[in-house]
């Protein structure tokens, strides 16, 4: 039986694990913001580098990137493109079709793509910063290929290794691929044991106590001993349950309108769900504040054993996008303990677990680099800031596909009553429309334009 190749082994890992391995080896490779531009599969391969730049003259040029595509003769290639400009495409469906025909595994763009439906229709993976409709024609030119690229603080050389998935994109120096993959495999085995310990009832504070993953540094993995039941004995108060129930049948647009009418700032800016779930998550806030790590580093996740059933964990990481504060073990444990969901002013990782488990996760982004030794818990159940909104412990959180709103606990009854009136008015509008009224007539009858106006 043939031995698995290095690419076969890399394919079995994910960007989170590879990023951790690079951290241990003090190598740069994790980049932020280069994410799938359609719901494409994970890709691994070797970099064929392309450098672009702004066109500064009127001299006709060959279509960018096409010479690189034509020159590829092996099946292990991923195109890595740098020099993109905000709002201007440097990739489209014709290039995607040509690349697919050449057996290229995918494209990573430090820039924008257009015609993304064309790439999706043929199953060609494209990762980048976003999509646009503006052509690169007469705007961007190819400057070089096969030469080193700079993406953020990472240097990518021709033939370096690439892995990209839902959490983002990581580049691995070719000279270090064996040690990165070997260490990644050890990390993966260790984390699998940690997840098993959580499922067996071990407290997450014990499972995740090993600072800098000392156990991973050794060649053998050490399983933790079985622990007590993971049953959550932390319970909400009756008042918590009553206030949460006030919003059980509401959604964030309705609550947002009520907050506007009452002059209460509560809409958490730029905090969005991982998926467009139809579920509305409601619960009192268990607040957590993260700070930069001390020396030696402090705890990153022990607080979760104190979170009650039905609570929403609300984490203030200062909007940081360079390291995460939540991963799959936390997701697994939170789900087992009946925690309602998690809101992060910052980024999360291991998103496949949350998506597959349908665990409600709201954040300002996703990335794969760990927060271990970069941040630590600075305080719990104290006032924090989330998306420019002040959150007090036990405030009521309402979150859905539209985002997250925070209802001050001492005004929850008042807000809920306004929500009820707004929702009733909107139901009247729907009824009037069904009865044959025009939208203008229906809105006038219920005073639609004043529903959310501040009193």
From TrEMBL:
Signal peptide: none annotated. It comes from the Eukaryota. InterPro entries: RraA/RraA-like, RraA/RraA-like_sf. It holds the Pfam family RraA-like. Its cofactor is Mg(2+). The keyword Glycoprotein does not apply. Substrate binds at residues 327-330, 349. CDD domains: RraA_family. SUPFAM superfamilies: RraA-like. Keywords: Magnesium, Metal-binding. Residues 222-241 are annotated as: Disordered. GO terms for molecular function: metal ion binding. Mg(2+) binds at residue 350. This is Demethylmenaquinone methyltransferase. It comes from Penicillium alfredii.
């Amino acid at each position: 039986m043939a031995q698995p190749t290095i690419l076969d082994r890399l394919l079995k890992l994910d960007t989170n694990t590879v990023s951790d391995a690079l951290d241990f080896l003090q190598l740069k490779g994790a980049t932020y913001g280069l994410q799938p531009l359609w719901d494409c599969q994970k890709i691994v391969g070797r970099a064929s580098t392309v450098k672009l730049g702004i066109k500064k003259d009127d001299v006709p040029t060959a279509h960018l990137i096409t010479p690189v595509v034509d020159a590829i003769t092996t099946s292990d290639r991923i195109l890595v493109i740098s020099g993109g400009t905000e709002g201007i495409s440097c990739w489209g469906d014709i290039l995607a079709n040509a690349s697919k025909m050449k057996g290229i595994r995918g494209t990573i763009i430090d820039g924008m793509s257009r015609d993304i439906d064309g790439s999706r229709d043929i199953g060609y993976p494209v990762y980048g910063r976003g999509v646009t409709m503006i052509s690169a024609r007469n705007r961007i030119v190819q400057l070089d290929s096969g030469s080193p690229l700079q993406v953020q603080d990472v240097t990518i050389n021709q033939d370096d290794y690439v892995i990209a998935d839902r959490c983002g994109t990581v580049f691995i120096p070719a000279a270090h691929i064996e040690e990165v993959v070997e260490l990644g495999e050890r990390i993966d085995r260790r984390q699998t044991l940690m997840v098993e310990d959580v499922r067996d009832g071990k407290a997450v504070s014990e499972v995740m106590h090993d600072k800098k993953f000392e156990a991973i540094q050794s060649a053998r993995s050490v399983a933790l001993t079985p622990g007590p039941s993971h049953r959550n004995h932390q319970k909400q108060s009756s008042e918590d349950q009553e206030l949460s129930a006030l919003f059980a049948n509401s959604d964030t647009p309705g609550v947002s309108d009520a907050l506007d009418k009452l002059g209460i700032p509560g809409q958490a800016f730029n905090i969005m769900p991982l998926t467009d779930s139809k579920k509305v998550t409601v619960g009192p806030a268990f607040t957590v504040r993260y700070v930069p790590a001390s020396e030696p580093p402090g705890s990153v996740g022990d607080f979760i054993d104190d979170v009650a059933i039905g609570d929403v964990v609300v984490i203030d990481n200062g909007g940081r996008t360079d390291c995460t504060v939540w991963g799959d073990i936390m997701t697994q444990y939170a789900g087992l303990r009946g925690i309602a969901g998690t809101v992060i002013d910052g980024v999360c990782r291991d998103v496949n677990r949350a998506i597959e488990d349908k665990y409600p996760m709201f954040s300002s982004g996703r990335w794969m680099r760990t927060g271990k030794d970069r941040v630590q818990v600075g305080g719990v159940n104290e006032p924090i800031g989330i998306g420019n909104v002040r959150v007090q412990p036990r405030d009521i959180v309402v979150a859905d596909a539209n985002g997250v709103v925070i209802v001050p606990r001492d005004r929850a009854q008042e807000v809920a009553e306004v929500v009820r009136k707004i929702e009733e008015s909107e139901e009247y509008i729907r009824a009037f429309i069904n009865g044959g009224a025009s939208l203008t007539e229906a809105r006038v009858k219920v005073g639609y334009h004043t529903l959310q106006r501040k009193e």
